[in-house]
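User: Fold this; tokens only.

Assistant: Input:
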Amino acid sequence: MIDKTLVAAALAGAALSVGAQERAIVKQVQVSASPESVWQAWTTRDGIRSFFAPDARIEARVDGPFEVYFNPYARAGLKGADEMRFLALQDRKMLSFTWNSPPHLGEVRGQRTYVTVRLKPVGAQATDVSLYHGGWGDGGQWDQSYQYFDKAWDHVLGNLQKRFAEKPVDWTEFLARVKAWQDEQDKAAGAK
């Protein structure tokens, strides 16, 4: 005779495991450059500044800093991807790093997700770049952060393509706007 309680528990467990799926952001682009050139773009300060953000602190080694500064004028901890670290590196093939939410999503900013970027050569002078961003919580600001990065990674990867097809990003106008905004924020904070 089959124990109905045991069967019910097994079915409930199966239903939970089916419903508990890891969500992730997955993106892919082809870049008109060799894997070596794309690798340098992701793993050096000058490379990051050529497509990703106006400044960075990068040491391409396991547990080395992968800090990407979208607002270099902000105080420490609010510049962008502050205190992020490389998790793994496989030369010209794969890099993985921790990532955080933007400063305006304070409830989840202190927690970390992870990003893995894979490079695959396509012919002599092209590279498929795939990006996987996982480790997401559910609800509230987790959902807002997920939506934010679902769009942001398209922009970053588009800049990577342009960096090689045309030229590196010129951050001059962007930095002028960020500086003016930061000055206003600092002035308002000082008036309080």
